[in-house]
What does this fold into?
Amino acid sequence: MPRARRTKRDKSPASGKKSPELKPNEPSEPAGEGAGGARPGRAVLAWVAGIVGAVIVAAAGAVFTGWFGSLGPGAFDEISREAPVTAAYVKITTDNVDLALREPVTAAQDRAILLGRPDEAQHEAFLERYRAAQVGATKVMVVLNGNRAGLRIADIRPRILTREPLPDGALLSPASAGEQGTIEVAADLDRAKPRFTSVKDRDTPYFETKQIDLVRDERVTFIMTLTACKAYYEFELVATVISNGRAEQVVVRRPGGLPFRLTGPARAYRTVYDESPMGGWSVRSKPGKYRIEGC
It folds into this structure.
């Protein structure tokens, strides 16, 4: 005979209501946190922490402001890696200036440049290959820009990098272009320690009696005449600048970071080229001896 099946007992409460089911990861409400006796929530604690943080930030800001104000406008100068002054503009006067070449011009390509009409890039490259140097004197215009809240230019002087015998390979003698501008300071490279002087007093260094004060973005312009008779020189300009009680040196060179060049006159040159009115250069048939005033 088939067995009779047992009826399952109802395990629900006697009232007939089912117990509420808990969703996954949802804790049951702790005892004592009902609507009648709730404790301060997380939102209240976050609000209090925000107020405390704001008070701390405001206090730190007030301390920093007082400290920064005590340092003055040059506070950031102490941590700046920028040079106290920079050369905003450098120009070498080339009008009506003879140029001496160290070697004769023998290469066909270079002779074609001299006799033809090269562009500016070819002309500059030619002069660099032959280390062309102005003869007797050169004029350099330098504009220095201040990069500190306050600074003083205490000195500027030429620094010799190379001293060699007088070049006599060739001479480029341009056509006359009239008088040149006013000279403010001058230096003789033949001296043991070249220093800039005023034009009227060649015995007293210019910066022993005058110094220049600059502020940020203020500029000063120097027109410098340098002379040489006894040798060929490559040099740079060195400015001594005082800022925040500390002395620094700033080096000024030609555009491209190249040194300046200047030479004294040779007694005679193996070849002399005269600038042609139609462009290019022509060889002088009888160069003769070469002399310039002051050497």
User: Anything to note?
Assistant: Confidence is low (pLDDT under 50) at residues 1-8, 10-19, 22-38, 177-182. Residues 80-283 form one domain. DSSP finds four helices and 15 strands in the chain. The chain has two domains: 45-76, 80-283.
